[in-house]
Amino acid sequence: MFEHSLFILELVKTTFLWFQNQASQLLKRIVLFILREGPVPRHVAFIMDGNRRFARGRLLSRAEGHREGYDRLVDALKWCLELGVKFVSVYAFSVENFKRSSEEVDDLMQLAVNKLEEILKERDLMEKHKVNVRVIGELGLLRPDVRRAAARVMSATRTNTGGVLNICFSYTSQHEMAGALRKAARGLREGILAEGDVTCRLLGRCLHTRGCPPVDLLVRTSGETRLSDFLLWQSGFAVLDFSPVLWPQFSLLDLAGAIAKYQRAAPALKELRRGSCCCCDGGSGGGDTALLGGSEKGAVSQRGEEAGADTQRRARTDAFLAMQDELLDEWIESNLVPG
């Protein structure tokens, strides 16, 4: 009789969990369907704040709180991809975080190694969504094992074209922009670029997020209302959403609220960007130089000269950017081999 009762209880539990899962899946489909009726952001960025407070509130270790945060990252990425968001950037570790206790930094480094390896085993991300994973930041500051893990995941996913996940690790926007200036200075010094080639558009294409559109929506959890030096160039016209929930508690409904906020602001955002030439990769280009008077023949000649100059400028910038790609490939290959 006792064994029969246990069987009944287990059956009830299994049935309840099945219905709960089905209801959750149905809710997700309804929410995503409604959101797709409006404009969907191309690029969403997350400041994943609140892991430590989440752990303290549940008497967990800090490492356990960060692990819970990683699980939420995977969920949020899947929600974005299913919605149609193709570019997702997350603030995983700031350069400033090196100032934390050595124990916590070591825990975060080890967690990064483990989770970067786990990303490759996420079949939904790798096989269904074909995500290109990029680990970006001051990677030279990381432990060798973290660099190897980053190189492995970037090497394994670099040909994927379904979506992009930028994991900003050992990152600040100040470091990123200073790095872009150093790259341009090197191009000038080596004669690859001319002085006139260095524009806001070129500098945007020297950022770690090269190839990604500007951030449309930036979400920060835990109630903090700061950007903490995260993607400042890329977020110049982004809609900001400061959510009160801690990152491990961030839900699809929280994301839906942020997306709805973006959709309400999208028309105004489009108008603001129309007049801007400073985008993180591309943009309006800043317009053509006006022709001030002169004969029609002279104007045609001037336009011809400008077209020739533009062709030369594009050739120089293409060569410069190809060199940046080669340097990244070299970094990946050099870090795949244990040093």
Automatic annotation (TrEMBL):
* Gene Ontology CC entries for this record: endoplasmic reticulum
Source gene?
A: DHDDS
Record family assignment: Belongs to the UPP synthase family.
One annotated GO molecular function:
ditrans,polycis-polyprenyl diphosphate synthase [(2E,6E)-farnesyl diphosphate specific] activity
Give me any GO biological process, just one: polyprenol biosynthetic process
Q: Where is this region: Disordered?
A: 291-312
Q: Which domain of life is it from?
A: Eukaryota
| InterPro entries assigned | UPP_synth-like, UPP_synth-like_CS, UPP_synth-like_sf
Q: Lineage of this protein's species?
A: Eukaryota, Viridiplantae, Chlorophyta, core chlorophytes, Chlorodendrophyceae
Spell out the CDD domains in the cross-references: Cis_IPPS
**Annotated HAMAP family:** ISPT
Among Gene3D superfamilies, the record links this protein to: Decaprenyl diphosphate synthase-like
Could you tell me where the Basic and acidic residues compositional bias lies?
303-312
Which leading EC class covers this enzyme? transferase
Organism (species) = Tetraselmis sp. GSL018
Q: Can you name this protein? A: Alkyl transferase
**Keywords on this record?**
Magnesium, Transferase
Pfam families (alphabetical): Prenyltransf
Its Enzyme Commission number(s) read 2.5.1.-
